[in-house]
Amino acid sequence: MGMTMTQKIFAAHAGLDSVEAGQLVEAKLDLVHGNDVTTPVAIGVLEANDIHEVFDKDKIAIILDHYTPCKDIKAAQLCKTARDFARAHNITHFYDVGEVGVEHAFIPEKGLVIPGDLTIGADSHTCTYGALGAFSTGVGSTDMAAGMATGLNWFKVPPAIKVIITGQFKPFVSGKDVMLHLIGKIGVDGALYKSLEFTGPSIKELTMDDRFTIANMAIEAGAKNGIFPVDELTLDYLKDRTDRTPVIYEADPDAVYESEVVIDLSELDSTVAMPYLPGNAALVKDVKGIKIDQVVIGSCTNGRISDMHAAAQILKGKKVANGIRCIVLPATQDIIRQMIEDGSYMDLLNAGCAISTPTCGPCLGGHMGCMCEGEVCVSTTNRNFVGRMGHVDSKIILASPAVAAASAIKGELADPADL
Amino acid sequence: MSKIYVYGDNVDTDVIIPARYLNAYDNATLAAHCMEDIDPNYASTVRAGDIIVGGANFGCGSSREHAPLAIKVSGAKCVIAASFARIFYRNSINIGLPIMECPEASAAIKAGDEVTVDFSTGKITDVTTGQVFQAAPFPAFIDNIIEAGGLIHSLKARGLAK
Predict the structure, then answer these.
(1) Do A139 and B90 touch (CB under 8 A)?
(2) What residues form DSSP beta bridges with A390?
(3) Which of A197, A393, B9, B44 has its CA 20 to 30 A from that of A409?
(4) Would you say residue B111 has pLDDT above 80?
(5) Is residue B143 part of a domain?
(6) What domains sit in chain A, N to C, each tagged with a CATH number?
């Protein structure tokens, strides 16, 4: 029986010729990572169990991105715990303020995950690296601890849903719209425990940043992972980022899929997810005009350079509407550097945006943009759950950077195609 | 008698333990704010042995292990749900929060019912209505982790973590 891409990566990392959906395997890990919220808990697990060695100091990444630069004393203590551990174990890939970026933008940028890898991270959006043709999935802190100690973890080999991409985007439509459309179609548990395997003639229409955004939100459909085939674009992205040799897996022609979904890019319009689920999809043209208080452009979903450019292109020479707070969070230091060099940083600054150092902050109501009762935010982040960005009676509308930028100018949910 | 807390579908980890409390992970903080954004009365009323009943996709969202930990240290005996989000499922097994997957029980049990559970057989009994439900069994592989006292203990027993 043929295997999917994901199944082939599992077979290779479990030392087996083949695996099938539902099989439980123990697989070798190419990278184990965590952040300032999850790593201290994992360190606590190791200490409580008298475990003093890590399996490979070069295959662990600790990235202080959630509450950094530290929002309060307790957050500073979390960072210190992680920092002390990283020093004690001489962890190669430890990244702190000044160098650090939002983990799921930063890890690919640094070349820490490449095609064919199998990785876990103690953060649910670890599924992002599927964009590179790797298997990656989010786990909790005990799994992170187990991974750091042994370089191994157990997995149930997932079945897959095949997502076939056809057609070409209309202007202002991007990877975020693809994913909000897909989650709206299959539901927030539509891919529970499964892989989303993206394929089809129009994969080439999706930039690497589109693919990162799409794979990033696989978890929002309940998926174990989202994965893309490796093509020229992937290999170009890897240049100067890694010395390792990518391993390219392709799904077998007779691979078994539980179901198929076709997405014709040419039929997509700007899409949002209304409160309080990422699956509450609506077309912007049908819901525009909703009054808002805040716009957030950034995060592991949409804080990459093309996201910044999409926003800057719309905001250049314009002003953020009176009374609207537009917070822009480029996801890494390199992205900020590029923005300064190409002028998009000044375009956003002059439009009246507040531009932050990289942090996950507002996405999870951590800091840098919490909302009070009754406020509404158009956000390029990934979750619009109750209370996600602050008060339980605040609301989040998930959108693309283009929709967020257009909304910042209009002071209400707006379609960039109308500007 | 166990009190039953019934919640709906897609109970996410942000409402189980809001991120504004994730700057700490001590038991007292987690217990004090457990379920705060879906049920502000939960933390002050829950007693040891109470049971949470959720719908589909319980524990979706963030990977925060703080979520099953918060439920465990709040005193709840177990979570019964129609289905669990996968990271929450793993985390619960790893930290020793008993979870029972049973769509029929999830649909039938009402707040105020008296419910008993048998983890060894997966039997859930609604004493009030007399209905008996069977939760999905764990694969043997996972049973072994649970029996070893969690993932870390099972790895140490194999000499894999030093």
Answers:
(1) yes
(2) A371
(3) A393
(4) yes
(5) no
(6) 14-263 (3.30.499.10), 273-418 (3.30.499.10)
Chain A, nearest residue to B145 by Cα: A154
The 10s digit of each residue's pLDDT in A216-274 is 999 999 999 999 999 999 999 999 999 999 999 999 999 999 999 999 999 999 999 99
Instruction: Name which of B13, B21, B60 to mutate to probe chain A: the one with the most chain A Cβ atoms within 10 A of its Cβ.
Output: B60
Residue B52 lies in a domain: yes
**Distance (Å, whole) CA A250 – CA A252:** 6
Q: What's the gap in Å between the CA of A195 and the closest CA on chain B?
A: 12
Percent helix, percent strand, percent coil in chain B, to nearest 5: 35, 20, 45
* Interstrand relation of A195-199 and A225-227 (parallel, antiparallel or unpaired): parallel
d(CA A400, CA B114) in angstroms, rounded, equals 47
Residue B142 counted as domain residue: no
Q: What CATH number did the domain enclosing B75 receive? A: 3.20.19.10
Query: Is the pLDDT confidence value at A280 over 90?
Result: yes
Residues 6+ apart with CB under 8 A from A409: A314, A315, A318, A319, A320, A321, A351, A419
Helices (H), chain B: 13-16, 27-33, 42-45, 66-74, 86-95, 103-108, 140-148, 151-157
Q: What is the pLDDT of residue A301?
A: 98
- DSSP code at position A221: G
Is the pTM for the entire model greater than 0.95?
A: yes
Task: Please state the φ and ψ torsions of residue B54, each to the nearest 5 degrees.
Answer: -115, 175
**Given a cut of 80, is residue B1 above it in pLDDT?**
no
C-alpha dist (Å) from residue A79 to A55, A62, A169:
22, 10, 42
What is the rounded CA–CA span in Å between residue B48 and residue B1?
Answer: 10
Q: How far is CA A52 from CA A47, A48, A239, in A?
A: 7, 10, 36
Question: Any chain B CB within 8 A of the CB of A147?
Answer: no
Asked if A38 lies within 8 A of B10 by C-beta distance, the reply is no
Is residue A10 within 8 A of residue A118, CB to CB? The reply is yes
A278: closest chain B residue by CA = B61
- pLDDT band for position A317 (cuts 50, 70, 90): very high
Output the average pLDDT for chain A: 98
Residue A49 to residue B156, Cβ atoms within 8 A: yes
Is B152 close to A40, i.e. CB distance below 8 A?
no
Angle between helices A401-410 and A305-315 (to 10 degrees): 30
- B57 vs A40, A126, A188: nearest CB: A188
Q: Which domain holds residue B128?
A: 4-136
CB-CB neighbors (< 8 A) of A72 in chain B: 23
Residue B24 lies in a domain: yes
Q: Which of A 279-338 lie inside 8 A of B, CB atoms?
A: none
Provide the domain count of chain B. Answer: 1
Q: How far is B142 from chain A (nearest CA, A)?
A: 9
Summarize pLDDT for A341-354 with one digit per residue, the tens: 999 999 999 999 99
In the three-class reduction of DSSP (H, G, I as helix; E, B as strand; rest coil), residue A138 is classed as strand
For B152, name the nearest residue in chain A, comparing CA atoms only. Answer: A146
